[in-house]
Amino acid sequence: MKVFEKIRDGILDVVFPARCVGCGEEGYYICRRCEGFMGESALICPLCQQSSLTGERHENCGSLYGLEGLASMWEYEGVVKGLLHTIKYNGVVHAAAEMVWRAYIDMADDIMRFSAFLSYLFSKNTCITYVPMFKKKERKRGFNQAAVFAREIGKIAGKDVVSLLEKIGDTKPQVDLTKEERLQNVRGTFRFNAQYSKPNSEKIPNILIPKNLVLVDDVWTTGATIKECCKVLKKAGVQNVWGFTVARTP
């Protein structure tokens, strides 16, 4: 599968070379000029969604099944929204590598703000997982964009990417739902992948349930989906979960 993906990406690069989603300049999906329009997303506490200097959960926002923190890179608008749509709906999945590298460079340039997340990501006991898609929809699209981003992050951090969750129910698109409807829409639609709770798993030998996880998705709006996934992971025995999204709705 990976060989096929490399061949496909190589053909796409020749037939459809990367062009900036902002101005059309050839070379990168977001050119040097247009990267100035990538709005930086303020870091927030994932529970109360108020400002947090490092994205960590506020001490007074305790939750048994809540996220420890949230790192979102850019505001979901303009060229960022355009590139995410290009990846998600046009199937240009190799553009995800460019976005993740930009994210990593931006985090390194703003090390104080992202210190908590980077320290957690690169710690010894951290693995990476992602928000799953309903299998029928994933087969139709051909990929899961959250998994694509997770794999690119794993390459940079040198971390295992594990499929710990399954989506067992189809849901309405979240985009047109209210906050309350979003919460109801995803409730009970995810479950823990049972193979990772069995000893001597073939996929990850000698690992049962990871202690620390980074949970990846493309966009954070109300956080309903990631919060539901986090609850399932923690009920299965995961101790700590940080969320990472490429973008956040302002």
UniProtKB/TrEMBL annotation:
Source organism, top-level taxon: Bacteria
InterPro entries: ComF/GntX_DNA_util-trans (IPR051910), PRTase-like (IPR029057), PRTase_dom (IPR000836)
Taxon lineage: Bacteria, Candidatus Wildermuthiibacteriota
Cleaved signal peptide residues: none
Coiled-coil intervals, chain numbering: none
CDD domains: PRTases_typeI (cd06223)
Family recorded in the similarity comment: Belongs to the ComF/GntX family.
This protein's name: Phosphoribosyltransferase domain-containing protein
Organism the protein comes from: Candidatus Wildermuthbacteria bacterium RIFCSPHIGHO2_02_FULL_47_12
